[in-house]
Amino acid sequence: MANVPDNLHYSKDHEWVRVDDGTAIIGITDHAQEQLGDVVYVELPKPGESFAAHESFGSVESVKAVSEIFTPISGEIAEVNDSLNDEPEKVNKDPYGDGWMIKVKMSSPGEVDSLLTAAEYEDFTKAEE
Amino acid sequence: MRYIPNSPDERAEMLQQIGVSSMENLFDSIPADLRLRRSLNVPDALSELELLKKFDTTATRNPAANRISFLGAGAYAHYVPTIVDHLISRSEFFTSYTPYQPEISQGTLQAIFEFQTLVCQLTGMDIANASMYDGSTAMAEAVLMAERVTRRTKVLASSAIHPEYLDVAHTYVQHAGIELQHCAYSPEAGTTSHDLSNLDEKTAALVIQSPNFFGCIEDVQALADKAHAVGALLIVVVTEAMSFGLLKSPGACGADIVVAEGQSFGVPLSFGGPYVGLFATREKYARQIPGRLVGEAFDTKGRRGFVLTLATREQHIRREKATSNICTNEGLIALASTVYLETMGPRGIEAVATQCAQKAHYAARKVSEIEGFSLPFSAPFFNEFVVRAPADASTLLKKLANEKGIDGGIALARYDANRPNDFLVCVTETNTREQIDNLIDGLKYLTTKTQRHEAA
Amino acid sequence: MITKVTTHISPNERLIFERSQPGRMGFSLPPLDVDEAPLDEIIPREFQRDDKLAGMPEVTEVDVIRHFTRISTWNYSIDQGMYPLGSCTMKYNSRLNEKVARIAGFANLHPLSSEEEAQGALEVIYELQQHLAEITGLPGISLQPAAGAHGEMTGIMIIRAFIDARDGKEKSAQRRTMLIPDSAHGTNPASAHLSGFTVKTIKSTAEGLTDLDHLRELCAHGDVAGLMLTNPNTLGLFERNIREICDIVHDAGGLVYMDGANMNALVGVARPGDMGVDVIHLNLHKTFSTPHGGGGPGSGPCCCTKELEPFLPVPRIVAQTSVSDDETDNHRLKSGPLRLDFDYPQSIGRVKAFFGNYGMMLRALAYILTHGRDGLREATEAAVLNARYIANALVSDYDKPFASDPMHEVVFTDKRQARKGAHTLDIAKRLIDYGFHPMTIYFPLIVSGAMLIEPTESVGRLELDQFIDAMRAIAQEALEDPELLLNAPHSTRIGRLDEATAARKPVLRWKPKESHSTAAQS
């Protein structure tokens, strides 16, 4: 059973958001990494690039599949988890912690309110199956 | 039909077993009005004997195949050691499929890994793929890759690149949103002009060929520096792969992508194909490279094997966002090149390349001594050079073929109407001194004969 | 009980670089017979290679023979037995075709030889073109593309060029959508993209065929340039509404492209040209038996209607006078010499240097002439019969998602086996232990856990029965002892490879070990 921590926001594209004083930390959920299998490569943007909500900011690759990843909120990339270049398996082992992908300076902090709660996300993934 | 293992009786039995009344009924799902009501209008079957006779006879209508030849321009006559064909004719190599199931394809996979390594060594680059269709399509794919990597849409290609390669590149980019511009070559030197006014920050790549279509060696390092100064990539194209044996590798001169035609390495001329495209680049572009890649891998018992890897770049996974649409490539031809290169080894490749250069320069010296003949380009060359005749080259070469049984070169008028008297000569290790001397004598004879006739 | 194979010892062999010993050589070359000039005088020093080709292997001829012979024994191949790979058509690669391709008059012919002196070579191209036109029912042909995907790109570019010419640049800019079924091979959308099209996916019905309503819906926007489909489709089913499909697309102003990968179900029985298809590509390395060679070479001729002919790649091989079209056995193909014609101002251009993979054309022509009109049809019948035979036998043990009778290939899923934990991948790997190459797996994408089986006509009844028995045994194992499948194959030189690590830290070439010359060493 995939892990869905309570204190996070979720998108229907299987990303999670943790808000930390105007900065959003984003990654993919446990459910997503399970579906993908062993992650072999993560393609991430550069700090300074800007994205609108629901825009694709990169991709995650396993051996036999590739998935685009979409940012749930708008803003400018403040930081990128470069350690994923050498250790993409962090996304599998610790998707909510060490497997974080980008930190975004939110341009419209109100956007998180339209994201899913943990419970809503759990229901959503169950319905998808 | 002897290729079908089940006899007609056996097939009838099988039909019965599955409850189908006749062969015709197997096609019930095809609407009746779409089914052919007649047999195909193709000939009746030929026996082996008849078939071979037919093809042998047809082959006699290719007198050019048996002639002494100095033809190059993208396809080269080199000697292929006997063992190459023997090894690639092993069932396990030529009747096997793409190695998608690595446990039973390690022969193919290891051979490709060796091929990739050899291509890196020869080109001086970090990674190479398992092959493209040929040099021309490899160049087109390199152009597409440069756009992906730099996100710039202008590409500059030297007019000293093989004209057929340029044609193919234009076809590939016509709907890709890429503007392919040409840059001039120096009429005196025969190499790409260094005055590259349209090389700027909008340029994704500068594409050059070295040795170029005229056989001239380009200053790859200088051109690499110019490209890099504006943030563009340098793509180097090589049609005569044997030049890798003697010339500094494009990788050592700053190239970002190297593509080549590998036909010189153990592949017969075969009227233009199948050949093999080599494609090599820097490690940082590993995920942008088109084509298949074989990588090292280990099983749970720690045994080393090889496997197709980084497949997420390819069409079967990334579909319309793939780095290329290529699927089937030139596996067996790449194997032939691998066997060739491993048989020849570094000393062999060096020796063949050196002989090509020495013989070509001997021929060039002798040609330039013939009255009325000159070498229009001053740049150094490897084994191909342009000759300027005192008369129409196409006519001269035709006479040379008919009267002396020698294919002396390729008339450049075939590609450029402004060069009626120029022809491209290629000399390889297979051309003997006697053949070269006969070429010289033939050219001398035919042009003085013409002059004598004209004087009379 | 595994009857087809027995485990046998197989030689180990390292990389050739690991065999290399300085000083070994495997080549012979006559001595230089011309006056030797100092190298620096003919090639300036700064252009000369200075690394002595370091790292290239130094081995003897015997080393090379042993090396490749040993590693070849690690491969499965058609000559060894059945390859049930769906959509690959792994049929017998005739040795006679190999002999033909090696005839010196073809093998030694330079592509830039004058046309007059290469008439034999041009005849082969011309004749093959005629036969393929007859087989497909489409008169326009180019043999220039070097593989199926290349032929696809060519065909889609032809569609693009036709629409640009018909509608004018401005109007045609509205038509940039290419419709592709959800069951299509990945090269289809990739090729569409190369021609500047965006892809829209068409759904399949529960029966596995193109959803006509969805097609009509997508065609209603006026932006459809064309439809790419495979027929029979990648589920092995014939699109019986093909005429209507073509009409819908044509009425909407688009063209129909057919992926000819599955022609092995149609040769001599039905023709794409008669179905209303505008342009197709063929795979000579599938339907026409040219060898797969471990990943190529292929050849992907592009065939089209008369209307699309002006857009074909150049050069075209044409006869001076017209073809005599008589139906008698003395099939006259041309009169007058053949020549290269570049005069097609609307051509999409060249797609490859020279003429295409010529050696494969020789083989394909030999294939057609060896089979003859009756043999070609016989092969198609035998191919479909073999697939139907397997379908009939396996339906008791495996889930067959579509009820319709398949043509030359059939798809099953792992639904029943997956209940106990064994999936398609595991079934495939276990099949290796039984002495077979696995079928195509996880394609087409619309079938979960797909196993696509295409025996071709080149498999005898005994081997078909062995395959069926093996699949049945594996189905049984999946229920009783799934571990056997999960850890399969057990009998090969290496087991399942860790592909994730291989992709994370790719090692794509051999590198020499660093020389031990650091100060710390002393």
Q: What is the topology?
A:
The complex is a heterotrimer of chains A (129), B (456) and C (522).
Chain A: E1 9-10, E2 15-20, E3 23-28, H1 30-36, E4 39-43, E5 50-51, E6 56-62, E7 66-70, E8 75-80, H2 83-86, H3 90-93, E9 102-106, H4 118-128
Antiparallel strand pairs in A: 1-2, 2-3, 3-9, 4-6, 5-8, 6-7, 8-9
Chain B: H1 8-17, H2 48-59, E1 68-69, H3 82-88, H4 91-94, H5 106-123, E2 127-128, H6 135-150, E3 154-158, H7 163-173, E4 179-183, E5 203-209, H8 220-229, E6 233-238, E7 257-261, E8 277-281, E9 294-298, E10 304-308, H9 315-318, H10 331-369, E11 384-388, H11 393-404, E12 406-407, E13 410-411, E14 422-426, H12 433-455
Parallel strand pairs in B: 1-12, 3-4, 3-5, 5-6, 6-7
Antiparallel strand pairs in B: 2-8, 7-8, 9-10, 11-14, 13-14
Helix pairs in contact in B: 3-10, 5-10, 6-7, 10-12, 11-12
Chain C: H1 16-19, H2 39-42, H3 61-72, H4 95-101, H5 104-107, H6 119-136, E1 140-142, H7 148-172, E2 177-181, H8 187-194, E3 198-202, H9 212-219, E4 224-230, H10 242-251, E5 255-259, H11 272-275, E6 279-281, E7 302-304, E8 316-319, E9 338-341, H12 358-394, E10 410-412, H13 415-418, H14 424-433, E11 440-441, E12 451-453, H15 461-480, H16 483-486, H17 499-504
Parallel strand pairs in C: 2-3, 2-4, 4-5, 5-6
Antiparallel strand pairs in C: 1-7, 6-7, 8-9, 10-12, 11-12
Helix pairs in contact in C: 4-12, 6-12, 7-8, 12-15
Describe the structure.
The complex is a heterotrimer of chains A (129), B (456) and C (522). With 129 residues, chain A is of the alpha+beta class. Chain A has helices at 30-36, 83-86, 90-93, 118-128, and strands at 9-10, 15-20, 23-28, 39-43, 50-51, 56-62, 66-70, 75-80, 102-106. Chain A has a single domain, classed as RNA polymerase II/Efflux pump adaptor protein, barrel-sandwich hybrid domain (OB fold (Dihydrolipoamide Acetyltransferase, E2P)), CATH 2.40.50. Chain A has a six-stranded antiparallel sheet. In chain A, strands 4-6-7 form a three-stranded antiparallel sheet. With 456 residues, chain B is of the alpha/beta class. Chain B is built from twelve helices and 14 strands. In chain B, strand 9 and strand 10 (304-308) form a beta hairpin. Chain B is globular, with a radius of gyration of 26 Å. Chain C is α/β, with parallel strands linked by helices. Chain C has three domains: 12-74, no CATH class; 100-370, 3-Layer(aba) Sandwich (Aspartate Aminotransferase, domain 2); 380-492, Aspartate Aminotransferase, domain 1, CATH 3.90.1150.10. Chain C has helices at residues 16-19, 39-42, 61-72, 95-101, 104-107, 119-136, 148-172, 187-194, 212-219, 242-251, 272-275, 358-394, 415-418, 424-433, 461-480, 483-486, 499-504, and strands at 140-142, 177-181, 198-202, 224-230, 255-259, 279-281, 302-304, 316-319, 338-341, 410-412, 440-441, 451-453. Chain C has a seven-stranded mixed sheet with strand order 1-7-6-5-4-2-3, sandwiched between helices. A three-stranded antiparallel sheet of chain C has the order 10-12-11, with helices on one face. Chain C is globular. The chains are: A alpha+beta (129), B alpha/beta (456), C alpha/beta (522). Chains B and C meet through helix 1, helix 2, helix 3, helix 4 and helix 5 of B and helix 3, helix 4, helix 5, helix 6 and helix 7 of C.
